[in-house]
Amino acid sequence: MLPAWWTQATRPMLEAGDSPGTGAWIAVILISVSTLAGAWLARRESTRLAVRLAIASAMMMIIALTDMLPDAWQDAVETGVPLWVVGIAVAFGFLVITYFTRKGCACPSDSGRSPVGLYAPGGHRRLKETVNAALFGGMGTAAALTAHRAIEGATLALTASTVVVIALMAHSAGEGLALAALLDVAGQRLAPWLVVACVSPAVGVVVATFSPLPGQVVPVLLGMVTGVLLRTAIVGLKLAAGRQENGRLSRGQLVIATAVAITVGVLLAMAR
């Protein structure tokens, strides 16, 4: 998000009741378009879903560690929230998703599992566990991203600099990709969650303008979102690996996922 000095410099303008500029709303539109583009990319070629899921999961992990966790830490220091409270919030978010995805994430390969195999002893149970893991991973991601994107919208209400917007667009595309990939594995409808994901930044702009969240709440909320996304990233990587015949991602897939994630991390570091 934003440096403390910039937030403090621009907050009086919002407290005075000024509305966000046109740039903030343009940024919201660009972020929404990026989210839709990421979701479209995930659905375009289902045969390459494993690669895209691996990329999206790696991006989520980078976003959580290089963007949200530092933000939570910084906001906690600025608002006087004990850091151990943020740590508990991270652990809580992580453990909640861990509980719902505890049955495992092994996915049958699209090409390596024959129809007969699905009827083998335990086949239905394993398939159901896979779907449940993807479902709760996807729903957890959707809920966490909704909260996070609302906070991003509040950030845009303060400033919509080019670097910040580019960084938000990059990881919004990754969020849309991850959401679509996980819900696709779970066989759930994507459209309602995409609507929520695209609307939440606008809600954040409006809320930040007229009724900002208490400062002490933000680092705790960011901590929980960080924990949720970290666990969801692990779930996504396991699902991606499970879709391979040998149950592991290839070296090329790992290289691609790592390169994309590092690129996003660099953009986020520049935005900070």
TrEMBL record:
Keyword Membrane appears in the UniProt entry: yes
Keyword Transmembrane helix: yes
Superkingdom of origin: Bacteria
Keywords: Membrane, Transmembrane, Transmembrane helix
Membrane-traversing stretches: 22-42, 49-69, 81-100, 133-151, 157-183, 190-211, 217-240, 252-271
Parts forming coiled coils: none
Full protein name: Zinc transporter, ZIP family
